[in-house]
């Protein structure tokens, strides 16, 4: 299913090219079809009759002359935001209630003609960045069902990525509106605190919570923001709307030694490529990440945990076993926080906030990886707190320090999951960040989002071979017997040396990383994960499997060597590859 465009739908309904009812019928059919793949995207949905009635009311308003900026646009709502007609569960059945009124943002979207199709799944009480902490099931990455969708706005992101709705509301306290956007190849618009009303939102950390939106492109993010952004006198954390310009001359990025990718070499490569494109917009300036990281640590390692505890105080007291065990483990330490802890935290955060404000004198905006890596669902379930923390490495500080942020796609991993960067600016630069995103995306030449995963992808590994496993060489059968698929002939980066190992039977080379080396010819094959595992069992010492960088900068698995492989070995680097060496011996 192709993704939907809020901008095009609204224009078509307003002009009479289609009707909101026709859009609603198509939307319902899309959702029903995708329910055979991921019914866990939703916690509750409108019936077809309810959806058609809501759409017919929009058509009547259009016919009556109303100019509705979101006429007939279907959208989903994270189920910690109140919508009349749907229970609000926050991902916890024992907490569920019937809201008496719509949330402030919902009022504005419905008034603009949008049609709510249902409530989307989430990490319970919006506590998580991965999407696996819900009794309603685990939404999975739309492009690879083996991987997490990101959270806590899990269902919202998948609903947009799968083409079920044109946009979906999420929330963001520590990155929940940005991480899922990155993994699912989406735009994740996180407004400045107070730009969008949070009235009617079940709080996570009330002082820093933001309602956000997932869209397929920046035009839709602009459109939704133009409707949702407004001062709400009934929300004590709402503020008067402001839009600050942003002259992008200096773009702050973490120092090279402070960049953490948790072993994800693809993410590191894609971030470097993104910085190359951003360098055409402004000067790249390395900044010290440490103060921002200190602020981030206060969110889960300091007294702000108690704010989450306060939001869940009732159910923790009355029915603690109804709370997901991982969520409970995260929030219960807040009970032991004292007022002294809180005030010391506030004082330290004020100092870090001052540092961040002064940072804007040296740079105009920041561009960070949205996340350093991603994980399979099975991996996340095995280590739910540690791996979840890794996903927040670049996101947790943003709301604490009152910054605007916009997550944008920045590439596709080999496993089809998305890598993204987040553009971060001072408070109230929300619309300016959208302009920067347009300029970046126009020059980034990114691939289209991969197809939806409808049945679960087989996990594969790309392997570079350099010697006896090459086609027509003595050990090539070890690849063909495992149904390895030939990807292509390549060269390594010019940072390798090649040696013929002494007394090896059959003859084998040793590939060694060396900055004074040269480009070496290799062949790349793709194997299933299980087949790759069985292949590595057959690799004899002094050879080993490690990472090999190709000429285009990408990294694949490949043959490397222990130091003892060079004892008595012949340096054959100048020949450029193993085939040339074998030919010289013939």
UniProtKB/TrEMBL annotation:
<dbReference type="InterPro" id="IPR036928">
    <property type="entry name" value="AS_sf"/>
</dbReference>
<feature type="domain" description="Allophanate hydrolase C-terminal">
    <location>
        <begin position="461"/>
        <end position="583"/>
    </location>
</feature>
<dbReference type="InterPro" id="IPR053844">
    <property type="entry name" value="AH_C"/>
</dbReference>
<keyword id="KW-0378">Hydrolase</keyword>
<dbReference type="Pfam" id="PF01425">
    <property type="entry name" value="Amidase"/>
</dbReference>
<dbReference type="InterPro" id="IPR014085">
    <property type="entry name" value="Allophanate_hydrolase"/>
</dbReference>
<dbReference type="InterPro" id="IPR023631">
    <property type="entry name" value="Amidase_dom"/>
</dbReference>
<protein>
    <submittedName>
        <fullName>Allophanate hydrolase</fullName>
    </submittedName>
</protein>
<dbReference type="GO" id="GO:0016787">
    <property type="term" value="F:hydrolase activity"/>
</dbReference>
<feature type="domain" description="Amidase">
    <location>
        <begin position="29"/>
        <end position="434"/>
    </location>
</feature>
<dbReference type="Pfam" id="PF21986">
    <property type="entry name" value="AH_C"/>
</dbReference>
<dbReference type="InterPro" id="IPR000120">
    <property type="entry name" value="Amidase"/>
</dbReference>
């Amino acid at each position: 299913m192709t993704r939907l465009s809020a901008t095009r739908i609204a224009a078509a309904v307003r002009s009479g090219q289609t009707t909101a009812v026709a859009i609603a019928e198509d939307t319902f059919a899309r959702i029903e079809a995708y329910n055979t793949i991921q019914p866990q995207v939703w916690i509750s949905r409108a019936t077809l009759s309810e959806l058609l009635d809501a759409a017919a009311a929009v058509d009547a308003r259009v016919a009556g002359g109303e100019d509705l900026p979101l006429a007939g646009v279907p959208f989903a709502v994270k189920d910690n935001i109140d919508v009349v007609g749907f229970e609000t569960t926050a991902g916890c059945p024992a907490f569920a209630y019937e809201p008496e009124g719509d949330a402030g943002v919902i009022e504005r979207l419905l008034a603009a003609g949008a049609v709510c199709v249902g409530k989307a799944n989430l990490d319970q009480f919006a506590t998580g960045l991965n999407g696996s902490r819900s009794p309603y099931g685990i939404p999975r990455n739309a492009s690879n069902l083996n991987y997490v969708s990101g959270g806590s706005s899990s269902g919202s992101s998948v609903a947009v990525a799968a083409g079920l709705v044109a946009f979906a509301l999420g929330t963001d306290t520590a990155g929940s509106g940005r991480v899922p956007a990155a993994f699912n190849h989406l735009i994740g618009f996180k407004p400045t605190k107070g730009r969008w009303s949070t009235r009617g939102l079940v709080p996570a950390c009330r002082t820093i919570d933001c309602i956000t939106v997932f869209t397929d492109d920046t035009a839709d993010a602009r459109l939704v923001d133009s409707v949702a952004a407004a001062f709400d006198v009934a929300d004590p954390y709402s503020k008067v709307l402001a839009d600050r310009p942003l002259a992008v001359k200096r773009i702050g990025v973490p120092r090279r030694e402070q960049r953490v990718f948790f072993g994800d070499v693809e993410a590191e490569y894609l971030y470097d490529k993104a910085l190359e494109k951003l360098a055409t917009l402004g000067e790249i300036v390395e900044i010290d990440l440490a103060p921002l990281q200190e602020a981030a640590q206060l969110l889960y390692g300091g007294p702000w945990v108690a704010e989450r505890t306060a939001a869940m105080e009732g159910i923790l007291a009355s029915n603690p076993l109804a709370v997901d065990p991982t969520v409970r483990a995260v929030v219960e330490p807040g009970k032991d926080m004292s007022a002294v802890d809180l005030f010391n935290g506030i004082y330290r955060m004020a100092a870090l906030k001052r540092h961040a404000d002064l940072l804007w004198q040296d740079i105009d905006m920041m561009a960070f990886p949205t996340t350093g890596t991603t994980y399979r669902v099975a991996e996340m379930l095995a280590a739910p707190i540690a791996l979840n923390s890794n996903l927040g490495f670049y996101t947790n500080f943003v709301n604490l320090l009152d910054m605007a942020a916009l997550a944008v796609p920045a590439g596709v991993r080999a496993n089809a999951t998305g890598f993204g960067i987040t553009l971060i600016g001072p408070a109230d630069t929300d619309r300016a960040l959208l302009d920067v995103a347009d300029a970046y995306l126009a020059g980034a030449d990114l691939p289209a989002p991969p197809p939806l995963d409808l049945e679960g992808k087989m996990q594969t590994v790309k392997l570079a071979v350099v010697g006896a496993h090459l086609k027509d060489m003595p050990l090539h059968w070890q690849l063909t017997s495992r149904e390895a698929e030939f990807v292509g002939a390549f060269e390594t980066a010019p940072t390798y040396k090649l040696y013929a190992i002494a007394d090896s039977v059959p003859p084998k080379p040793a590939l060694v990383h060396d900055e004074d080396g040269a480009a070496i010819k290799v062949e790349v094959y793709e194997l299933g994960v299980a087949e790759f595992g069985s292949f590595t069992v057959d690799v004899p010492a002094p050879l080993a499997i490690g990472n090999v960088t190709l000429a285009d900068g990408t990294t694949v698995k490949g043959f490397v060597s222990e130091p003892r492989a060079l004892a008595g070995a012949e340096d054959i680097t100048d020949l450029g590859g193993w085939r040339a060496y074998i030919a010289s011996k013939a």
